[in-house]
Amino acid sequence: MTDTPDVIVVGAGLAGLAAARELTIAGADVVVVDAADQVGGRVRTDVVDGLLLDRGFQVLNPAYPEVRRLLDLPALDLRPLVPGVVAITDAGPRRLADPRRRPQWLSDAMTSDTGSVLSKARLARYVARAVSRTNRGSTASDDLPAGVALHSAGVDSRLVDQVVGPFLSGVFGEVGLTNSRRFMDLVLTSLVNGTPSVPARGMQAVPRQLLDALPDGTVRLGTRVLEAGAGWVRTAEGTVRAHEVIVATDPTTAASLVPGVVVPPGRDLTTWYFVADCPADDLTDGAGVVVVDHRGPLANAVAISNAAPEYAPGGRVLVAASAVGVRDRLEDEHEAREHLARMFGTDTRRWEAVACYPLRYALPAMLPPLSVRRPVRMTDGLIVAGDHRDTASVQGALVSGRRAAHAALSAQRATPSA
């Protein structure tokens, strides 16, 4: 890099690419640098024997406002998961969903195996109020741990322990629902407004689409930033100056480059991928639905190829199973297989283990009291972006990139794009 660009963006993940796109639209000269060999940051997809393996079970909710604003959703060719959850109980599997979207599952919701009908009505009331607040752009005045908020709303322990808790543990990367109720409200609203999906070509199709929208040569991969400061970065090739520097990396890397960045507690997750030796219809009626069971190590499991056949061409059945924490020992895989056998009601001993992704700091914790708009401007010439500045989600990462870009443009007396 020999020129002096308007902005240098450190990190080619969702936040960095979103910032670069916003800046480019406004006419700024932008350079994005990243130490990796591909774009995406934590949103990456590997191809193993033709199988598409996202690095950790991830989904894209098309209801996210920033997703709708920024991405070409038809081009991503989204494959929706079933908008609901199957909870495994002592009495067998119970299917639960919004009855307006899945009326054929209503009979399961009327049983007491997963909590009383009254408790489910109270949960529905809580969700409706959360959606109303979020859609109005407001938040709950008091921020509590999510579990405390649910119990305060009258949701009984059986429904929390068997359904809501296990489901959200895979979203939050935690056990115990200690995350912020404000973040839970945002998650619940997105589930009501949209259907979690995966692109037909894997989750990395999202950052690749953002890359394709940038001018050729904007992104320089394989370039590690050793130091960063107000208006400059240093790589192995020397120091490059710019009017503004945006550090859009993971929180730990950002803190090592930018004084004053506080690293929030992180959440670890592990995802296994298995190729099942049974027909797709034998797994949750052949549907791509998230399965939860509170009686084992797994937070959730899903036959992802039932939702997106492109993930496992040739008629194979690909199952993603995720657990909270780093669990990369052989005995952890054995425990995961045993849990999957209970979740899907089939023998999993001959399932082929394709990959294991132990993800340290898979996402930042969203602890109460949560501020969903942390400052991005650190000092003149130095800005930070990433989901740790907003919320631990695709929405949060993209929004933080836009906010960082607008901060840079404001300093240059430019007008952000509409």
Task: Offer a quick outline of the entry.
The chain is of the alpha/beta class and 418 residues long.
How is this structure best described in words?
The protein is of the alpha/beta class. 32% of the residues lie in helices and 24% in strands. The chain has helices at residues 14-25, 65-70, 73-76, 106-109, 117-135, 146-152, 157-172, 181-193, 205-212, 251-257, 304-307, 330-344, 394-411; strands spanning 7-10, 30-34, 45-48, 51-54, 78-80, 85-89, 92-96, 197-199, 219-221, 225-229, 232-235, 238-241, 244-247, 266-276, 290-292, 298-302, 317-324, 352-364, 377-379, 382-384. The strands form 6 sheets. It has a 6-stranded mixed sheet, with helices on one face. A hairpin with a 2-residue loop joins strand 11 (232-235) and strand 12. Helix 6 packs across helix 8. The longest helix has 19 residues, at 117-135. The chain is globular. It starts with 6 loop residues before the first strand and ends in a 7-residue tail after the last helix. Mean pLDDT is 95; it is low at 414-418.
